[in-house]
UniProtKB/TrEMBL annotation:
This is Signal peptide protein. Residues 25-140 form the DUF2147 domain. Residues 1-21 form the signal peptide. The keyword Glycoprotein does not apply. The keyword Cytoplasm does not apply. Keywords: Signal. PANTHER family: BLL5882 PROTEIN, BLR1215 PROTEIN.
Amino acid sequence: MNRIIFTFLFVALTGILSATAQVTGKWKTIDDETGEAKSIVEVYEQNGKIYAKVVEILNPAKKNAKCQNCKGEDKDKPILGLTIIKGLKKDGDEYTDGDILDPQKGKLYSCTIKLDGKDKLSVRGYMGISLLGRSQVWHRVK
């Protein structure tokens, strides 16, 4: 009986960890307006929530850029190292109820992310309702 319970718990825990592991990792961000690759972002799990920070800026002229238009604690912080996605929670096959920061505009938006295959991440930032927003597809960095 103990063996059955242990096996069940192991399978359940493995399923939970693999679902989180799918969105975690490094992703190349693609600007939805220009189509240009902008940065490498690391998506990670902390205390059961999903976060993402900028770990590389691809345009050499912007490597030392600061979040000049940001408000609060992010004001004038370097974009490199900045946490841009905060507090997403798993909801089915999506992660929702968090925020995403656009460091260029200094604006904070509601955010959802969802895998589109194993190597594409659909990222949506919006105000109010999800229909009023923008989407980007990020590509997994191997």
